[in-house]
């Protein structure tokens, strides 16, 4: 699959979000898209999934079956989880058994009878993941899939991604929290300044010695700097200290 | 069941369960109560049918817009990921199905209020005119739905003025420049509605067809 010289903006008067962006993904690739907030990660994911049409350039050889899980699952719908997934299985033309399979793997069997609007953020997020996985997608696009998930599902999701990759599927994930950082063969991309560039693979601990830096930064810039360092492949832990202490 | 039909069913189910379907239904019932406060006298059946079809257009447009806007934007994105370019088709089919129900209620109310027994001609004319009304309402609703017009205020104004524009242009006698809703009523009251039914059908479907094409084209860049 190839994103070829893609430029995109939301309206004629809006600024370009992406300009001449290129990205080539091969069958089995798992790609993590990083970058500061508001730089166009979700836009890139939506272009990859075919939800947005490039203003210039094109997306070529997109796999036929696409699964997309949005960052915020739209839980404000008048269905139970089971009814919603039954409808989505029918839309995807997959057997209803798939619902049980994915509910079990994502640890959400107990939610099937619940109404969507009553779900917590994490539970709703699981429904979003389940509908994207139902159809055994050749391209799976996950926007911040780890946000709000419980520990068991956080551990299961990389295994699911590995299975899709093993059968030749492409997985594109935007991930702020670095949950896929240790994923074998992970390709990492950064969206910045309207361009997409591939980052070096993360070096495994043991391959190169690690050191710990202590950085003092104004609190308002902390999140941005943390994102930037994570995009560079660093492990970042933000601790809340008063500025004076940190400076000392 | 094809994916498009499955998604159509999902949308209709969501629309009905969300109770948004009640709003245009109540508006329709109010309109019918006004239209048929008294029985339709013998000889006025076709004229009453044309009045019903013409006045129904804004209610049907409102219903179509309501159905298309019931779904959250992200759910539409999920549907788009599953169906690609066929996603808007399922929305239009779901809206069309819901409008058929409303038009059938209007037609049934008309038949129930006729002073005499309806003839086959009256029945068929009712079905024909109400289908033309459904086509006009569907397109006006689709073109004012959220993917096309983001602002609810702009969308509501566009729907109202769209219908008024239809009335004004057709009142002025411009049969090819809009859906000639005034011509339906005028011809029916003058007893000439059924003289050239094919011509009137073509005139009434031309703009809905152009509107549907425009909707499809706009949705390419407005998911």
TrEMBL record, chain A:
What the entry lists under InterPro entries is as follows:
AAA+_ATPase, ABC_transporter-like_ATP-bd, ABC_Transporter_VariousFunc, P-loop_NTPase
Q: Name one Pfam family in it.
A: ABC_tran
Family annotation (SUPFAM superfamilies): P-loop containing nucleoside triphosphate hydrolases
Which GO molecular function annotations are given, in alphabetical order?
ATP binding
User: Does the keyword field hold Transport?
Assistant: yes
Entry keywords, A to Z = ATP-binding, Nucleotide-binding, Transport
In terms of domain of life, where is this protein from? Bacteria
Where do the ABC transporter domain residues begin and end? 1-218
**PANTHER family attached to this UniProt entry:** ABC TRANSPORTER ATP-BINDING PROTEIN ALBC-RELATED
Record protein name field: ABC transporter ATP-binding protein
The upper taxonomy is:
Bacteria, Bacillati, Actinomycetota, Actinomycetes, Streptosporangiales
Automatic annotation (TrEMBL), chain B:
Q: Which UniProt keywords apply?
A: Membrane, Transmembrane, Transmembrane helix
Residue ranges annotated as transmembrane are 21-40, 46-68, 89-114, 120-144, 156-178, 198-218
Per the record, the domain of life is Bacteria
**Is Membrane tagged as a keyword?**
yes
Keyword Signal assigned to the entry: answer is: no
Q: Which protein are we looking at?
A: ABC transporter permease
Q: Highest lineage ranks of the organism? A: Bacteria, Bacillati, Actinomycetota, Actinomycetes, Streptosporangiales
């Amino acid at each position: 699959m190839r994103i070829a010289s893609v430029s995109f903006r939301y309206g004629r008067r809006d600024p370009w979000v992406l300009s001449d962006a290129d990205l080539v993904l091969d069958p089995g690739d798992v790609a993590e898209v990083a970058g500061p907030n508001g730089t166009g990660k979700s836009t890139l994911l939506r272009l990859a999934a075919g939800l947005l049409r490039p203003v210039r350039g094109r997306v070529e050889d997109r796999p036929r079956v696409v699964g997309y899980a949005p960052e915020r699952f739209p839980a404000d719908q008048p269905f139970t989880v089971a009814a919603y997934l039954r409808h989505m299985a029918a839309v995807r033309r997959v057997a209803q058994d798939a619902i049980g399979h994915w509910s079990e793997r994502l640890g959400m069997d107990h939610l099937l009878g619940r109404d969507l609007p009553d779900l917590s953020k994490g539970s709703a997020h699981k429904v979003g993941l389940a509908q994207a996985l139902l159809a055994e997608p050749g391209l799976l696009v996950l926007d911040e899939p780890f946000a709000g998930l419980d520990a068991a599902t956080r551990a299961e999701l990389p295994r699911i991604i590995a299975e899709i990759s093993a059968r030749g599927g492409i997985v594109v994930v935007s991930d702020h929290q670095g949950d896929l950082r240790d994923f074998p063969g992970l390709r990492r991309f950064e969206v910045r300044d309207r361009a997409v560039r591939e980052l070096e693979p993360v070096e495994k601990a043991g391959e190169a010695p690690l050191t710990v830096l202590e950085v003092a930064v104004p609190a308002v810039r902390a999140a941005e700097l943390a994102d930037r360092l994570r995009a560079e492949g660093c492990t970042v832990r933000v601790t809340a200290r008063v500025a004076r202490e940190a400076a000392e | 069941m094809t994916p498009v039909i499955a998604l159509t069913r999902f949308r209709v189910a969501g629309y009905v369960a969300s109770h948004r379907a009640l709003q245009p239904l109540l508006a329709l019932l109010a309109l019918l109560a006004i239209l048929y406060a008294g029985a339709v006298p013998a000889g006025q059946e076709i004229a009453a049918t044309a009045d019903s079809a013409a006045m129904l257009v804004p209610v049907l447009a409102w219903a179509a817009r309501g159905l298309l806007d019931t779904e959250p934007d992200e759910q539409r994105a999920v549907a788009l990921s599953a169906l690609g370019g066929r996603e808007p088709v399922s929305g239009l089919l779901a809206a069309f199905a819901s409008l058929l129900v409303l038009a059938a209620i209007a037609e049934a109310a008309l038949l129930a209020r006729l002073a005499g027994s309806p003839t086959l001609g009256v029945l068929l004319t009712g079905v024909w005119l109400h289908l033309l009304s459904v086509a006009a309402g569907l397109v006006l609703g689709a073109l004012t739905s959220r993917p096309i017009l983001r602002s609810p205020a702009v969308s509501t104004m566009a729907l109202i003025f769209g219908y008024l524009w239809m009335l004004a242009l057709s009142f002025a006698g411009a049969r090819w420049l809009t859906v000639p809703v005034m011509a339906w009523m005028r011809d029916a009251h003058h007893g000439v509605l059924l003289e050239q039914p094919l011509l009137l059908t073509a005139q009434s479907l031309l703009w809905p067809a152009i509107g549907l094409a425009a909707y499809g084209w706009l949705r390419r860049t407005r998911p």
